[in-house]
Amino acid sequence: MPNPASLARRARSHIVQRRHAASFAAGLDVSPRDDLLEVGDLNYGGYILPTSLLSQDSVCYLAGTGEDISFDLSVIARFGCEVHSLDPVPRAARHVAVAAAYEKRLVFHPVALWSTDQDLTFYAPRESGYVSQSATNLYDTAPDFTAAARAVSSLMAELGHDQIDLLKVSAEGSEYEIVDHVIDQQLDVRTLCVEYAQPAPVERVQRSLARLRAAGFVLVAASVRTWNWKLTFVGPKVGDAESRDGSRATEHTSAHGRRRSVHRSGAQPSSGVPR
């Protein structure tokens, strides 16, 4: 059981992190669309998706399953497409083997995403019993195991894909390496969902957003809780196509037909988009 001093440190850390999250959310420049939908639980594995950009023929790479593939299965159920789910942690692989045993449209790859094809060392979780493990030693823990990693471009070449309609990255600190690789290689990613793992310096996240913006990615949705920062972007080729067809509305329609502006949640419990 944690001692009083440890509990006090955690409380102070939570207060500081909550302030960071609120400051970060307040500074975001979001360009909402009329087709946004919460898929899954935003408090854990879910993301906000632009539904008009996804279909039965979509190519989806979903990095970071952990022991919750509800988002992966929700994408399959809503759009009818095949998804490629990735996680290098053996415990995650065992979970997916059971949870998706009867869903043949979920193709699991026991690898990490990275910027090159190589073996990476993964470090122990920050708490005993947690499944998420970091290749960047996000939590300053001991080395635990080594696993294969694949560059996004290399995996696309192997699978015969020239574009990715949905790339989800939940990678415990590796998101910067992966996002930089997507930008540097000018990969055709139509929808990019990134969880920026916490704690992390706000400035580092902001630099990543600036690189994405300079590359033509548009931030269309943000769900920022204290320890859970999830952002959704559409890629530059989407913007080019929609510019030719006319700009999209900056509001969206709820399940009951009401139109509301997309809400940056900060530490709030609701994202403000329909589920």
How does this structure look, described?
With 275 residues, the chain is an alpha/beta fold. The protein has a single domain (4-260), classed as 3-Layer(aba) Sandwich (Rossmann fold). It is 31% helix and 24% strand. The chain has a 7-stranded mixed β-sheet with strand order 5-4-3-9-10-12-11, with helices on both faces. Helix 5 packs parallel to helix 6 (202-214). Mean pLDDT is 87; it is low at 249-270.
Highlighted features:
single chain; 275 residues; alpha/beta; Rossmann fold; 7-stranded mixed β-sheet; 3-stranded mixed β-sheet; 14 strands; globular
Question: Could you provide a short overview of the structure?
Answer:
The protein has about 280 residues and is an alpha/beta fold. Helices cover about 30% and strands about 25% of the residues.
Secondary structure: elements and pairs:
Layout: H1 4-26, E1 36-39, E2 47-50, E3 60-63, H2 70-79, E4 83-86, H3 90-99, E5 106-109, E6 112-114, E7 118-123, E8 143-151, H4 152-159, E9 166-169, H5 175-184, E10 191-196, H6 202-214, E11 218-224, E12 229-234, H7 236-245, E13 252-253, E14 259-260
Parallel strand pairs: 3-4, 3-9, 4-5, 6-8, 9-10
Antiparallel strand pairs: 1-2, 7-8, 10-12, 11-12, 13-14
Helix pairs in contact: 5-6
Give the oligomeric state.
Answer: single chain
Q: Which strand order spans the largest sheet, edge to edge or round the barrel?
A: 5-4-3-9-10-12-11
What is the N-to-C order of secondary-structure elements (H for helix, E for strand)?
HEEEHEHEEEEHEHEHEEHEE
Shape: globular
Helix vs. strand class: alpha/beta
CATH topology name: Rossmann fold
State the helix count: 7
CATH superfamily: Vaccinia Virus protein VP39
Radius of gyration: 18 Å
Q: How much beta, percentage-wise?
A: 15-25%
Termini, distance in Å? 38 Å
CATH architecture annotation name: 3-Layer(aba) Sandwich
- Helical percentage: 25-40%
Name the average pLDDT: 87
Tell me, what is the CATH class? Alpha Beta
Number of strands: 14
- Specify the biggest β-sheet: 7 strands, mixed
Low-confidence spans: 249-270
Give the domain tally. Answer: 1
